[in-house]
Amino acid sequence: MTIPFPSAEWVQAFREAINASPAYRASAADWEAGPICFVIRTGEEKTYLWLDLHRGECRAAELVLPAEGERAPFLVSAEYEEWKRILRGQLDPVRAIWMGKLKVRGDLSLLLRYMRAAQDLLACAARVPTQFRDES
Q1: Paired strand residues for 74
Q2: What's the CA gap between 2 and 99, in Å, rounded?
Q3: What is the dihedral of CA 99, 27, 60, 82, to 10 degrees?
Q4: Taken in order 133, 4, 48, 96, is the CA torsion positive or negative?
Q5: Is the pLDDT of residue 84 over 70?
Q6: CB of 126 within 8 A of CB of 21?
Q7: Is the separation of the CB atoms in 39 and 78 below 8 Å?
Q8: CA–CA separation, 84 vs 125, rounded Å?
Q9: I need a labelling partner for 77 at 20 to 30 A (CA). Which of 23, 64, 65, 95 fits?
Q10: H or E segment to which residue 119 belongs
Q11: Which residue has the higher pLDDT, 108 or 49?
Q12: How far apart are CA 133 and CA 136, in angstroms?
């Protein structure tokens, strides 16, 4: 069964995948910089996916209202199609940042120090059986 992206069900499956990942647990073992919010832009609409990440664990994951999402110490934003390419492994997130397709608000140098953790996090997302809007 595939899960629509983005949806509350997808976010919970993502959290479960993160917490089941020994690779993420190890690469983010000393992450204490706070939550990260992914923003999925579809035209004028924005969906905010909040991840409370701490020491290799995802303590909470949920879709939040824009006002709450905007308060995250780290905001990672891209168009829906770019997220789709990232989740499918067709677009490297670091390359997407340099190409301007993935926007980061927050301490980019800190995030780059945790690049292995970011890659492991996205590997967890890729393991979620995902249904994209334009697929049946």
Answers
A1: 36
A2: 30
A3: 20
A4: negative
A5: yes
A6: no
A7: yes
A8: 11
A9: 23
A10: helix 115-127
A11: 49
A12: 8
